[in-house]
Design brief:
Length: 378
């Protein structure tokens, strides 16, 4: 039995957190009050999902504080309260900026190490009503089966002391979840997104395909023909960061507990559907890009790195990951998660790409030279 399952539904000792404002009762008068003005603390908040969450929260009229290292510029000026520190309590000034203050909900978009998450959760336990932790679908130990839900087994660390995020990302995220649940019990909300896409995405994963078809000049000297991993029926799964952020805010308002996978429903989109949406949009812009479907055996033989060089491509021949883009998100949909049309995301990403600094972008995606080699006749 886990620590979280041993705790009562409202805290360590069976009592609700100090102060009646932290009642877990979700009656309509309470919801109307918090909808008017919620105090939110975002751990992170300057990049991608955190940025979109702050945007939607401010637009809705809520009071937002962000806790960051202070290295990234913010776009909100005095509209947010800036708290500067470090997630690692051993690196000064650590969590000192969080020693004072109380909030209705904390939204943790920057927790990757259990030690860091444990320290923040313990410090905020009696001064925060609800803790929303952004985890990942990577927490599951078995990605070989489609349609797995939140009850599937989680990855674990062979060495609990490991802090190697690059190697053990999923297992570390799972351990972070347990830290939040052990402190906040039924005041904890765990969100497990799949691939998050949209404007301000720093990873170049989904954005690569938008650039390849709609803004190919950003990728250098590209041919008319674009390499696309066959087959077109390959399922792909992702979520627009803005849809995720808006839904997270709704859950924070209602203080919803539990665990939710958060992504598009499995098999909503395929690689073929993505290309079919991109080609006419390219044509409407006067851009001639033709997809060339390349069998994945040829991609593997050419040494193309799945997921990074050709984003969204996970070899179907790999049984260990064959279900990774087909997780069930039915529970989140039942809780109100909605999705904007794919075409809206494509257009918005295309518009954003021309405004960002692309000098350091595309370092890990398929190069023009490698693409030409794949397209060359045998």
């Amino acid at each position: 039995m886990t620590d979280a399952s041993r705790r009562s539904s409202s805290g360590h000792d069976g009592r609700e957190p100090r102060g009646s404002r932290y009642s877990l009762r979700g009656d309509r008068r309470f919801l109307a009050a918090v909808r008017a003005s919620l105090k939110l603390l975002v751990l992170g908040g300057t990049r991608f999902l955190g940025r979109h969450f702050v945007d939607v929260a401010l637009t809705a009229g809520h009071e937002v504080s962000i806790f960051t290292r202070g290295r990234e510029p913010t776009r909100w000026g005095d509209a947010v309260t800036r708290l500067v520190g470090n997630r690692d309590p051993d690196i000064a000034p650590g969590l000192d900026a969080l020693e004072v203050g109380d909030w209705d909900s904390v939204v943790d978009t920057s927790g990757y190490l259990p030690r860091h998450v444990r320290a923040a959760a313990a410090l905020l336990e009696d001064r925060v009503a609800h803790y929303l932790f952004v985890s990942s679908l990577s927490v599951y130990s078995d990605a070989s089966r489609a349609d797995q839900d939140e009850s599937a087994a989680l990855a674990s660390l062979a060495d609990p002391a490991s802090e190697d995020v690059a190697t053990h990302y999923g297992a570390l995220k799972a351990a972070c979840e347990r830290e939040v649940q052990s402190v906040f019990g039924e005041r904890a909300l765990i969100i497990r997104p799949g691939l998050i896409v949209g404007p301000h995405d720093p990873t170049d994963r989904f954005s690569y395909w938008v650039a390849r078809f709609l803004r190919p000049e950003l990728l250098g000297d590209r041919d008319v023909t674009a390499v696309v991993p066959a087959p077109p029926s390959r399922p792909i799964q992702f979520i627009d960061a803005r849809d995720l952020a808006g839904w997270m805010l709704d859950l924070a308002l209602a203080r919803i507990p539990g665990v939710f996978n958060a992504c598009s429903p499995p098999r909503t989109w395929t690689m073929g559907a993505l290309v079919d949406a991109l080609v006419p949009r390219a044509r409407a812009r006067g851009i001639a890009v033709l997809p060339r479907w390349i069998d994945e055996s040829a991609l593997v033989a050419a040494g193309i790195e799945p997921w990074t060089e050709l984003p969204l491509w996970i070899p179907l021949a790999d049984p260990a990951t064959s279900g990774f883009m087909e997780f069930s998100c039915a529970k989140a949909q039942a809780q109100g998660l909605q999705f904007r049309p794919l075409e809206v995301t494509l257009d918005d990403v295309a518009a954003w790409l021309v405004t960002r600094d692309n000098e350091a972008a595309w370092a890990h995606t398929l190069s023009a030279a490698k693409e030409r080699l794949l397209l060359a006749p045998d």
